[in-house]
Specification:
Largest sheet: 7 strands, mixed
Low-confidence stretches: none
Shape: globular
Order of helices and strands: EHEHHEEHHHHHEHEHEH
CATH architecture of the largest domain: Alpha-Beta Barrel
Number of domains: 2
CATH superfamily of the largest domain: Metal-dependent hydrolases
CATH class of the largest domain: Alpha Beta
Mean pLDDT: 95
Helix content: 25-40%
Strand order of the largest sheet: 1-2-3-4-5-6-7
Oligomer: single chain
């Protein structure tokens, strides 16, 4: 039986496991294929690929792009794109820089009320990777302010929080089209994750993304209630999009477990046909 978890994160962005370790953890979880989709970076691809043979787990290379639509945060998974595509690389670079500036501003606000500094955050961030809210969350946990990342994101770093600061992000429809131009396959991540933010993208925005080339929707996700999963599936069916399920695993600090949601192998086969880079197999 093929078990495919196409949405995970490594320590290159905001996970806690090195990319090669992630593949071996996937093997222990019984996965046959895993997608590495770090935030706004391809930096973990090579290290993850180096562990394919020893782990026996196939690798889907991807990226999770921070986007916005109508002032609402949206995350887009871009699978199997050309990592040298100049326009895509430029957008990811700009997004990472903006996220770091935003992170500094958030820490400045938090430091007025809580024992957290920018130096504290840097201890949790990857040396050359994107610095974001998860690393701020880790610093707050270390300071004893919250118990885990889930608590931090549900309270202090929620989009409606007075400590929250926005960052530049590409328009979601433009990002879908960009992923397609880069030879990748775009999938909308956890669109109904109510615990993450106050406002959710309207269905009209998803319609526009579908028209621009969206391939699928991540319906089966820990942050979707049973009702939300059904609604996401209904949207996907109406628009002729593929249904995805994944863990959105980040390692310690979040309860998400590898393989807790998976995607139909037939959907992944279609995805692979449309991508530019290949799925790496043992």
């Amino acid at each position: 039986m093929l078990l495919i978890d196409p949405h995970t994160h490594s320590a290159v962005s905001d996970g806690t496991d090195a990319p090669d370790q992630l593949l071996h953890l996937g093997a222990k979880a019984g996965l046959t294929m895993l997608g590495l989709t770090d935030h706004d970076t391809f930096a973990g691809w090579d290290e993850a690929e180096s562990a394919v043979a020893s782990s026996g787990v196939s690798l889907i290379r991807g990226v999770e792009i921070s986007c916005a639509t109508q002032g609402i945060t949206v995350h887009l998974l871009g699978y199997l794109p050309d990592p040298t595509h100049a326009e895509l690389v430029s957008v990811l670079d700009r997004t990472r820089l903006s996220r770091e500036t935003r992170a500094r501003n958030i820490v400045e606000r938090l430091s007025a009320d809580f024992p957290v500094t920018w130096s504290d955050v840097l201890r949790w961030a990857p040396e050359d990777g994107p610095i974001g809210r998860p690393h701020i969350a880790d610093a707050l946990i270390e300071a004893g302010v919250c118990q885990d990342r889930s608590e931090v994101f549900a309270t202090l770093l929620r989009t409606s929080s007075p400590y929250y600061v926005r960052h530049w992000a590409p328009d979601a429809v433009d990002a879908v089209a960009l992923v397609r131009r880069a030879g990748g396959v775009p999938v909308l991540a956890h669109p109904l994750a109510r615990t993450r933010q106050r406002f959710l993208p309207p269905e009209s925005a998803i319609d526009d993304m579908a028209e621009a080339g969206l391939f699928g929707i991540e319906c089966e996700h820990r942050d979707h209630s049973v009702e939300d999963r059904h609604r996401a599936r209904d949207i996907a069916k109406r628009l002729g999009l593929r249904v995805f399920g994944s863990s959105d695993y980040h390692g310690t600090g979040k309860p998400n477990r590898l393989g807790e949601n998976v995607t139909d192998p037939r959907v992944i086969a279609e995805l692979e046909e449309q991508g530019t880079v290949e799925v790496i197999r043992p």
